[in-house]
Amino acid sequence: MERASRRFSGLLRTELTKLGVDDIGPAQAMVLLAIGEAELSVGELLDRGHYVGSNVSYYLKQLADGDYIDRMASQRDKRSARIRLSEKGRKLCAELREAAKSYERALTRGEQDRRNLETAFQTLHQLELVWGNAHRYGF
């Protein structure tokens, strides 16, 4: 899994370079993709992406400085901020999703390949849930 993660990070770096993006790296791009179309608090983002708090603060500062996200003070609690993608962030995510589709097409030459890929994603999602619950609540 670690090797696959490193390869994926390298692939993201390559895609960012192709798109002319040099002010953020793969980790920040993954944060953008985790935000998606939602408007989230930092805590919700931490839960969604399983990040370490100090890393997310650093990533969000870089993303805000690069105009990839908008930060708004919460109406209920001015100490808390809500984040969402800016137009620039939405555009980059759309381009990255399009690149992902091209890789998916390369992997799935037929219906059986598509089913195999779907099964692999389902299995990875199940592992994530089991490991996440084990981490939070123990076995």
TrEMBL record:
<dbReference type="Pfam" id="PF12802">
    <property type="entry name" value="MarR_2"/>
</dbReference>
<dbReference type="InterPro" id="IPR039422">
    <property type="entry name" value="MarR/SlyA-like"/>
</dbReference>
<keyword id="KW-0805">Transcription regulation</keyword>
<dbReference type="GO" id="GO:0003700">
    <property type="term" value="F:DNA-binding transcription factor activity"/>
</dbReference>
<feature type="domain" description="HTH marR-type">
    <location>
        <begin position="1"/>
        <end position="129"/>
    </location>
</feature>
<dbReference type="InterPro" id="IPR000835">
    <property type="entry name" value="HTH_MarR-typ"/>
</dbReference>
<dbReference type="InterPro" id="IPR036390">
    <property type="entry name" value="WH_DNA-bd_sf"/>
</dbReference>
<keyword id="KW-0614">Plasmid</keyword>
<protein>
    <submittedName>
        <fullName>MarR family transcriptional regulator</fullName>
    </submittedName>
</protein>
<dbReference type="GO" id="GO:0003677">
    <property type="term" value="F:DNA binding"/>
</dbReference>
<keyword id="KW-0804">Transcription</keyword>
<dbReference type="InterPro" id="IPR036388">
    <property type="entry name" value="WH-like_DNA-bd_sf"/>
</dbReference>
<feature type="coiled-coil region">
    <location>
        <begin position="93"/>
        <end position="120"/>
    </location>
</feature>
<dbReference type="InterPro" id="IPR023187">
    <property type="entry name" value="Tscrpt_reg_MarR-type_CS"/>
</dbReference>
<keyword id="KW-0238">DNA-binding</keyword>
<dbReference type="GO" id="GO:0006950">
    <property type="term" value="P:response to stress"/>
</dbReference>
<keyword id="KW-0175">Coiled coil</keyword>
